[in-house]
Amino acid sequence: MAVFEVKQGSSSVILGFPHTGTEVPAEIWERLNENGKVLADTDWHIHHLYAGLLSDATMVRAKFHRYVIDANRDPAGVSLYPGQNTTGLVPETDFDGKAIWKDGHAPDAADIAARVRNFHVPYHAALAAEIERVRSIHGVAILYDCHSIRSHIPFLFEGKLPDFNIGTDMGKTCDGAIEQATLTVVEAAEGYDSVLNGRFKGGWTTRHYGRPETGVHAIQMELAQSTHLETEAPPFAYDTVKAERLRVHLKDILVRIEQIAPDLKR
Fold this sequence. Notes:
The chain is of the alpha/beta class.
């Protein structure tokens, strides 16, 4: 199976999709239990949601599912949110804390090392190469990492998640102008709520690549799936009406941060 796909563009903006993949190699699929085979923790349809919003943006998308290995976790296994419930580099449970592997078939250290080598490393090599290519053209690169999650997951957070969840690791991963431009759009979006660096402050991808002093800026957008799905349960169908309403605001964000790029050159 192909590990990732890349669409090269001429924009200063790169769209990352680490969690939209649903492909699972047969030998790994057979180790998942019935709950795991639902693949519930997918960022359903997110690459379609963003398609065409910024025509010249580069896109890098992992094709493997996060249960194979999570491309947005530290390959060393370090937790993004110490002391809080979360899932690891190769998850043992889903977002509800329920087991996803058959008894006795959970991945061991050797499995995890192999998956880092065969999936995590190639995806990030491709992403890093595109970041460097874009930076060489523009003198700056802006990575916009695209995510979604169910709006209610008691195992991970209390209550309802805001619709727009912006993560910049407390302002460390991008210039303040990018953060502010994004915040301006979502705060003005009628009928939606939002938060900056709330429960989700940016995953490993955002924190790893976001180095504004080098000309590389990164920001994560975690969308509540209620904003674009018919239901946040199987079959996780895409709601075209909801999505088109949401896409107006997502396009506004991408256009604005692209316009900022020339002012960010070192």
